[in-house]
User: What shape does this take?
Amino acid sequence: MRNHLGLTLLSIFLLSSSTVINAQDRTLLIAESGSPYTEQTWFAYGLGASVDENDITDSWNQGKRITSAAYTREGWLVVMAKRTGYVHQAFSLMKEWPEEWIAEKTKNNYAITSISKSEKEWLVVMSQGSGISSQRVWRNDWSELAPWITENKENGYFITDLVFDGEAWTVVMSRTNKYTSQGYFWAQSASEMMDRVKAEVWAKGFNLHQVVYGHGHYVVVFGNYSSGDSRFQNLQIDPVDAKAYIRQQWNRSNIISYVGGGGL
Assistant: This one.
């Protein structure tokens, strides 16, 4: 198992925000075959409810780790599994961005592996054993973030998470052994997004990494994994019954590799 290489957060320029998201109206689920994850578990807490720490702790004690989490139209949705590669894990659920907590965890070789925002709080998950050697995080308008993303990509960083908090985008970029290539595009509707995913991602042999909704747009991040790149994927937007959809995917030997949300 690869150890961390002196993990540092090189840039945290996040601004505190009290902005309330008016609506969390998307649930985005990526299911795939060929993932190393096993024995998956998930928790949904309902709109307005918080994450139950006991659920997470009990699953940690079973050897499972959080692989993805988001605030969705189902409320908080947290997915956990075994064989993630993560050795230890911690999470923060706070009203404000937990900058001091992140800095302290970073000193102990943790890296950010998931971020999300509800109307009331930030959920930040940090993990040891992620294969991430350094990270950069910035919250801003996308017009400012786009050249920053390009610059960091040229220096060996990949987008490993992003979220819209009702006012601005927060992007986490990491030097990681998980990906070998990456790109992204915007779409203004679900139909446009799905057409482009089929034509520009799956038809060209790429895999979806993340799909996030915010401010009336979808952001699709895609590329190649460093291992297990020939994965069959399915993207579901706003399932009528998320529980039934997840169980259907499990019955097909697929796992939920990513949970995304988003608001206006």
Notes: The CA atoms of residues 241 and 247 lie 10 Å apart. Residues 9-263 form one domain. The chain has five helices and 17 strands. The mean pLDDT is 89.
